[in-house]
Specification:
Elements lengths: L2 E5 L13 E4 H4 L4 H13 L6 E6 L5 H14 L4 E9 L2 H10 L4 E5 L11 E7 L8 H13 L2 E5 L10 E5 L2 E6 L3 H10 L2 H9 L4 E4 L5 H12 L7 E2 L20 H7 L7 E5 L6 E5 L2 E3 L1 H11 L13 E4 L5 H9 L3 E4 L6 H6 L5 E4 L3 E4 L7 H15 L3 H12 L1 E12 L1 H13 L1 H4 L3 E2 L2 E8 L2 E2 L6 E2 L4 E5 L4 E6 L7 E11 L9 H4 L1 H11 L1 H5 L6 E2 L1
Parallel strand pairs: 3-4, 3-5, 4-9, 10-11, 10-12, 15-16, 15-17
Antiparallel strand pairs: 1-7, 2-6, 5-6, 8-9, 12-13, 13-14, 17-18, 19-26, 19-27, 20-21, 21-24, 22-23, 24-25, 25-26
Helix pairs in contact: 2-3, 2-5, 7-13, 10-11
The structure holds 1-O-phosphono-alpha-D-glucopyranose and zinc ion.
């Protein structure tokens, strides 16, 4: 077995987005494309010789091939050992858990999260540091810089390793440790939550429905919800992982998780429904005929945290991404704990958690998590909810309504305009930016603009500054409209419009969010000139 050094040419487009590098599978299949990026990671992180890495992915199409390539490159680059999930599988939170538990130098996660998979779908790769969290902006920029100047990469001439059986294998001078992808994660979950109480809840006639969307969480849910907690097999749907997610879009929201939504809004609906995404880090929570917005879910978890064994002593603080509703801010205020507002993307939470400043974090994009790992965590959120329900013994809807009665309701919705020409989408943002001065002080019906800006964040731990993180239009009554371009898409541009209004009156809490937000949506369309500039009369997805 010899190490080969292959001459290559840099690709100009390997800039990591909100969560690593995501491209079409066909882009990754071009000669040297994956190898260039992996070598750029290795060159940038400069791990000491014989370091250990974690490697795994969400099992989507191209996962198996990419895993073998990365193993051979790790061996050629002087790594001592790689912990790889059986069959190359690790959910994103499980990968974070394994990096932390075995104190490895870092890990490489193969996933395009909730983007569709298959030969014509998406693929992705990202690097996570020794804290188990996504590489910081600084590291991501170093990887991108390296990818633009790379001229060669190293790879071991070796046969593929069989990854279907846990055990230790040699690859050149490196050890490949094939691990059970579920065991460490399941053990961590059992240490956080009251499994006995959840088991009793499920044994007592409380019915759930969990939708793994043919993605990575299937085996995790089967082990944890099924085997350890006793949920019947009939309560778990789409738990067989498929390379193309069964042709679906593995994003747990009201549009794409329609099978679950039909069950939860149908006759004889179960008491609790949940779904997770392609790589297992997102979650959607439903009660019987009731949708819990991700922003509300974060606030509810924070308000009920002391009911959970792992958080019974209280929370150090909470954090949310800027477009996430301010519902959790109200809880933090009452608990008298700090609440941080970060840019979009989980990588911004890592420093706050490492510094012990926050315990719970969340994003409006169906992401919630805590300092048990450094990624958002779909099944963790499901277990958190089940633990609350086991203690409170009330329906999901009653718990949410009680919460609104106490804190008021942050009515929330996000409109996504997908697949726009990049120039048109950027034109909307530029237009808004040019009008900050005229907009300030303007009245639109009951809404008066208090201020507008481009959100900028200074990390309180390392002082790094992230600019241009979304246009904010803030109104005097606390309502907000945010405009932001997605950093995870692989085709054209996606413009996201986030709408939020605050309503304290219980008498209006039964209203549909779209009804409450109707005027604000019109204001958003008016000030952005979105329809004229993009030609779109309707958003692609409303969440
Ligand atoms: C989206 C979400 C963001 C999340 C990211 C990764 O990024 O909006 O909250 O962290 O996916 O799951 P975006 O496409 O908006 O850049
Ligand atoms: Zn994901």
């Amino acid at each position: 077995m010899s190490i080969r050094t292959i001459t290559t040419q840099a690709f100009p487009d390997q800039k990591p987005g909100t969560s690593g590098l995501r491209k079409k599978v066909t882009a990754f299949q071009r000669a040297h494309y994956l190898e260039n990026f992996v070598q750029s990671i290795f060159d940038s992180i400069a791990a000491p010789k014989n370091s250990t890495l974690v490697l795994g992915g969400d099992g989507r199409y191209y996962n198996r091939q990419a895993i073998q390539t990365i193993l051979k490159m790790a061996a050629a680059n002087g790594y001592g050992s790689v912990l790889v999930g059986r069959d190359g599988i690790l959910s994103t939170p499980a990968a974070s858990c394994v990096i932390r538990k075995y104190k490895t130098f870092g890990g490489i996660i193969l996933s395009a999260s909730h983007n569709p998979g298959g030969p014509d779908g998406d693929f992705g790769i990202k690097y996570n540091s020794s804290n188990g969290g996504p590489a910081t902006e600084t590291v991501s920029e170093a990887i991108f810089a390296r990818s633009k100047s790379i001229t060669s990469y190293h790879i071991l001439d070796a046969a593929d390793v069989a990854l279907d059986t846990p055990g230790e294998y040699r690859m050149g001078g490196m050890t490949v440790q094939v691990i059970d992808p579920v065991a460490d994660y399941a053990e961590l979950m059992e240490s956080l939550f009251d499994f006995a109480a959840i088991r009793n809840l499920l044994a007592g006639g409380f019915r759930i429905s969990f939708d793994a969307m043919h993605a990575v969480n299937g085996p995790y849910a089967t082990e944890i919800l099924g085997r350890r907690l006793g949920a019947p097999a009939s309560s778990m749907i789409n738990c067989l992982p498929l390379e193309d997610f069964g042709g679906g879009h593995p994003d747990p929201n009201l549009t794409y998780a329609h099978e679950l939504v039909e069950i939860m809004y149908g006759d004889d609906a179960p008491d609790f429904g949940a779904a997770s995404d392609g790589d297992g880090d997102r979650n959607m929570i439903l009660g019987r005929k009731f949708f819990v917005t991700p922003s509300d879910s974060l606030a509810l978890l924070a308000a009920n945290a002391t009911l959970i064994p792992a958080y019974k002593k209280g929370l150090a603080g909470v954090a949310r991404s800027m477009p996430t509703s301010a519902a959790v801010d109200r809880v933090a205020k009452e608990l008298n704990i700090p609440c941080y507002e970060t840019p979009t993307g989980w990588k911004f939470f890592g420093n706050l958690m490492d510094a012990g400043r926050v315990t719970l974090c969340g994003e409006e994009s169906f992401g919630t998590g805590s300092d048990h790992v450094r990624e958002k965590d779909g099944l963790w959120a499901v277990l958190f909810w089940l633990n609350i329900l086991a203690v409170r013994k009330q329906p999901v809807e009653a718990i949410a309504r009680e919460h609104w009665a106490r804190f008021g309701r942050n009515v929330y919705s996000r409109y996504d305009y997908e697949g726009l020409p990049t120039a048109a989408a950027q034109g909307v943002i530029n237009h808004l930016q040019q009008n900050f001065a005229t907009l300030t002080g303007s009245c639109f019906g009951k809404y008066t603009v208090q201020m507008c800006d481009d959100f900028s964040y200074t990390d309180p731990v390392d002082g790094s500054v992230s600019k241009n993180q979304g246009v904010r239009i803030l109104f005097t009554d606390g309502s907000r409209i945010i405009f932001r371009l997605s950093g995870t898409g692989t085709e054209g541009a996606t413009l996201r419009v986030y709408l939020e209004a605050y309503d304290a009156a219980v008498s209006r809490h039964h209203l549909d969010a779209q009804v409450v937000l109707a005027d604000l949506i019109q204001v958003a369309l008016l000030i952005s000139e979105l329809t004229g500039r993009t030609g779109r009369l309707q958003p692609t997805v409303i969440t």
